[in-house]
Amino acid sequence: MNFWMDNALEELHSVISRVDIIIINDEEAIQLSGKNTLFAAAQEIMSYGPSHIVIKKGEHGAMLFGKTEFFTTPAFPVHIVKDPTGAGDCFAGGFAGFLAQCNERTFQNLKTAVVHGTINASFCVEGFGTSSIEKLNKEKAQSRFKEFKSFTCY
């Protein structure tokens, strides 16, 4: 993303204007928007066209912004991080995979998709390369989802 912002910003803005949801990390959001807070960055980026933005914050979780709605979640607490490479892609895969199963794109479904992305990313960082994701199955993912829900609800 940084390459495109540095070398083809006009073309990047053109692409962003045609999407409904964008997923980027916190540093990219600040650079792309020229703003100095994530809330201001999200509002600026949504003014380019997307109706929603997900800002990933690595080990600090993720934020979902809509025009009038907001959601934030922590990351799943992983005790040992072996390799963060690919965690953002795993997040996006979990997010998109959950939404693909939904009949509607409601804010509640988007929130749940963010949590599924968070869970996917947590498995990724526990191994090198794709080793952890290759061993992942639906039961393990659902178990971690339930565990996450138990310590994020009050």
* Count of discrete structural domains: 1
The averaged pLDDT comes out at: 94
CATH-derived architecture: 3-Layer(aba) Sandwich
Structural class: alpha+beta
Order of helices and strands: HHEHHEEEHHHH
Biggest β-sheet description: 4 strands, mixed
- The top-level CATH class is Alpha Beta
CATH fourth-tier homologous superfamily: Ribokinase
Query: What coarse outline follows from CA principal-axis ratios?
Result: globular
Describe the structure.
This protein is an alpha+beta fold and about 150 residues long. The protein has a single domain (about 1-150), classed as UDP-N-acetylmuramoyl-L-alanine:D-glutamate ligase, CATH 3.40.1190. The chain contains 8 helices and 4 strands. The chain has helices spanning about 1-5, 10-15, 25-35, 40-45, 85-100, 105-125, 130-135, 140-150; strands at about 20-25, 50-55, 60-65, 70-75. Helix 3 (about 25-35) crosses helix 4 and helix 5 (about 85-100) packs antiparallel against helix 6 (about 105-125). The chain is globular. The relative contact order is 0.11.
